[in-house]
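User: Before I run my own analysis I want an independent prediction to cross-check against. Here's the chain; please return only the structure tokens and, at the end, one sentence I can use as a sanity check.
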Amino acid sequence: MTRKISPHEIAKKLGIPQAQVERRIHAFSDARKKILIVDDEIDTLLALKISLEAGDYNVIEAHNGPKAIELAKTEIP
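Assistant: Structure tokens:
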């Protein structure tokens, strides 16, 4: 019999926030292609995000270069 481990238990063992564990678990089950978009103009970013999500893409957004680099490393688009 396999014992299920809760996100809370995983977070406690790894020393990371439970929300981060839950986000990563959800990402494993998301079969959509992941795209990172970057723009400092919020209106442009939002319009592009809406268009891509309508095309069934998992969109990750950044408002500047440093945040984009951080997301590229952690989200692996």
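Sanity check: The first helix runs from residue 7 to 14.
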